[in-house]
Amino acid sequence: MFKLKIYKLVFIVMCSFMLVDAQAQSIAVIGTNDTSITTKKLLANKLTIVKSAFCKTWNKTFVNFTDNNISLLAGMSFSKQTIKDAGYNSSFNYNLLDYNKNEFKPGFLAGFRVDGKYNKVHDYSVSFSLNKIATGTHYKQPGGLAPFLGTFSHFKADDQFLNLSIAAHYKKLLPISDTSKYKLYVVVGPSLDTRLSGQSTDNLVNNNYQRFLLRGDLGLEFDNHGYYTLFMHYKQGITSFTKSPIHSNLNSFELGVMIKASDIF
Fold first, then answer.
1. What DSSP string runs through 41-73?
2. What pLDDT, on a 0 to 100 scale, did the predictor assign at position 140?
3. Which among 173, 205, 193 is positioned nearest to 236, based on CA atoms?
4. Strands, E, within the chain: which ranges?
5. CA separation for the pair 229, 110 (Å, rounded)
6. pTM, 2 dp
7. Mapping DSSP to helix (H, G, I), strand (E, B) and coil, where does residue 146 land?
8. Dihedral pair phi/psi, residue 193, rounded to 5°
9. Residue 246 and residue 122: Cα distance in Å, rounded?
10. What pLDDT, on the 0 to 100 scale, is given for residue 69?
């Protein structure tokens, strides 16, 4: 039932933005200042309607979730896969000198988030974001045949993904400063990544990668008087991003900023 509600909200948001885009394309921009101003006003009005409709639907669907605010978010992510191929066998052999990169590689993310209170007491957030992920690939149990061959593996991990991430966080205010001006939160909760990108040709042969990935999030968020919020999250893989017998943990650091939608539109 909860998943059905989430999908309903995502569908409403997508339809709303499609309507806004269609409205923008239908306006003939002649090149005069009056036309440009009219176009901006119409777009602002449409975006306000979208925001109001979303909040109304959210409040009606989730009765105990109140004081909701929508924020836009963007940032960078740094990700790494830790891989155990566990005796996986295929017709391919890969020299890990070229692929074994024990490092976090940069990507980026963008989306929106709803913040509010549960039962008027507990702070929470639910976010929806598109994540363009690049990863390092660290093989923990590589094969080898010394002295004739160096380390190798029958599995070559993909290192580029486009994921849709849905995350739910419980927020706890830390009383370490003047909370009327600055707020520091610790956040914790699960996130579900849905892989939107395809697999490499080699991995497509055996369909090695999972469609879904469950991760646990832990982070800090700094709210500067409501003007903006800086966040730093660490995401630890709970389920494997690859199918058995291969086990791949995808871990990420996310750094970014959030701004209330009402301050922009």
1. HHHHHHHHHHHHHHHHHHHHHSTTEEEEEEEEE
2. 86
3. 193
4. 65-84, 94-95, 105-118, 122-139, 143-145, 149-153, 160-174, 182-195, 212-224, 228-237, 247-260
5. 14
6. 0.73
7. coil
8. -100, 135
9. 39
10. 83
Residue 243 contacts residue 211 (beta carbons within 8 Å): no
| 33: region left, alpha or beta (phi > 0 left; psi from -120 to 50 alpha) | alpha
Three-state DSSP class for residue 198:
coil
CB of 248 within 8 A of CB of 83?
A: yes
Length of the chain, in residues: 265
161-192 as b/e, with b when 16 or more CB fall inside 10 Å? bebebbbbbebeeeeeeeeeeebebebebebb
Which residue is associated with the tokens 């777009």?
A: 43
**Alpha-carbon torsion, ordered 184, 186, 192, 193, to 10 deg:** 60
Q: What are 108's two structure tokens?
A: 């980026």
Nearest by Cα to 46 from 33, 27, 31: 27
Residue type, 103: E
Distance from C-alpha of 117 to C-alpha of 62, rounded to nearest angstrom: 11
Could you read off the pLDDT of 177-210 as tens digits, one per residue? 777 788 999 999 999 999 999 999 889 988 999 9
Helix 2-26 / helix 33-61 crossing angle, nearest 10 deg: 170
Question: Looking up tokens 């997508």, which residue turns up?
Answer: 14
Residues of the chain with pLDDT under 70: 1-36, 40, 51, 58-67, 142-150
AA identity, residue 126: V
* pLDDT of res. 148: 45
